[in-house]
Design brief:
The protein contains nine helices and eight strands. The chain has 331 residues and is α+β, with helices and mostly antiparallel strands.
């Protein structure tokens, strides 16, 4: 009996180890991303921001999904695979192109459009003073299911002359918005409360390997250079951003593919008001942040810019797996 028990335990341990080692081979995307099909100019980073946008948009446009692929699941296998990935890549890679071999386990499917930042009167520097050429990607964190809510997210990239792009990401929350498929129902933010569910705590644990504050992204890089690649004498950056959906963007709440909604949004549409938490909250202890705090901060926020689409939204292979959005992680 002892021998049989030892063999059984050994088999379970071996299976667990093999599952961990080969987890990323069983899940989407199964193949590691190959280099971009477009020949990237050697002087790409020295180009004008709008020229960079042209290069990225050509990749997006020529790899459109003829049929919308299903949203990717997220479960134990994906979590194991993600824990193996070098998450510091999200903070360390400056390129607009995903490194070969990089896999996107969260926000794997979405749609992307060209956008401009139209500033309102504000004292913040860098791209907060406006930009003509950017990209906005809208996505769900994972495929909604019986135990997984609809969880909207966005990634914003502003292309700048001669310097790396400015990037940020935002979520409604880690828990999502239950079974409501109206993507634009709630504002998003670059800072969200620490999740209370088991899955959110596991994701928090994985990302805490690279930051003690995995629910917060910084904005200093966005404020360090403007769209012309010019650096201010003094960088003035907000701590918290709010992306407030335009009131006209209302879609049905019943189950459907939200990418079909994105495709209906024409160019020259106000997508989000960009607001920032009032300066008096800049030193707030975000370990105490909650949905009630978020609501109060939003009520007192300052409207600093508008995000306007300058193209239609497209769902494409390159938009899903080829373009790279850097995270400015708080150390």
């Amino acid at each position: 009996m002892k021998s049989i028990f030892s063999i059984a335990v050994g088999g379970v341990v071996l299976a667990a180890v093999l599952t961990y080692v080969f987890a990323d081979s069983f899940i989407e995307p199964r193949n590691l991303r190959s280099p971009s099909s477009l020949s990237i100019p050697e002087n790409y980073e020295t180009l004008k921001g709008c020229k960079k946008q042209d290069i990225l948009w050509e990749e997006i446009r020529t790899s459109v999904h003829k049929i919308l692929p299903p949203f990717r699941d997220f479960g134990p296998l994906q979590l194991m695979a993600m824990s193996k990935q070098h998450l510091k890549t999200k903070a360390g890679v400056l390129s607009d192109f995903s490194p070969a071999g990089w896999k996107k386990y969260l926000h794997g499917r979405g749609s992307i459009a060209k956008v401009a930042i139209v500033p309102r009167n504000n004292s913040y520097t860098g791209i907060f003073q406006g930009a003509k050429c950017g990209l906005l990607r809208l996505s769900l964190t994972y495929a909604p299911g019986e135990s997984r809510a609809v969880a909207p997210g966005l990634a914003l990239k502003i292309l700048r002359d001669g310097v790396p792009s400015a990037n940020t990401s935002a979520l409604v929350s880690l828990e999502g918005q239950n079974k409501d498929y109206n993507f634009f129902k709630y504002p998003m933010s670059n800072i969200v409360p620490i999740g209370t569910g088991y899955g959110q705590k596991l994701v928090h644990f994985v990302f805490s390997r690279v930051s003690n504050h995995p629910e917060e992204l910084l904005t200093e890089d966005m404020a360090s250079w403007n769209s012309l690649g010019e650096s201010p004498k003094e960088t003035v950056a907000p701590r918290q951003l709010f992306f407030v959906p335009a009131p006209e963007l209302k879609f049905v709440s019943n189950e459907h593919d939200v990418r079909e909604d994105f495709a209906k949004i024409p160019a020259n549409t106000l997508i989000y008001q960009l607001r920032v938490a009032a300066p008096e909250f800049k030193d707030f202890d975000y370990s105490k942040y909650s949905s009630e705090t978020a609501s109060s901060f939003l009520d007192h926020s300052l409207h600093v810019a508008d995000i306007i689409s300058t193209s239609e939204f497209i769902s494409s292979e390159f938009g899903d797996d080829g373009i790279f959005f850097k995270h400015q992680i708080r150390p």
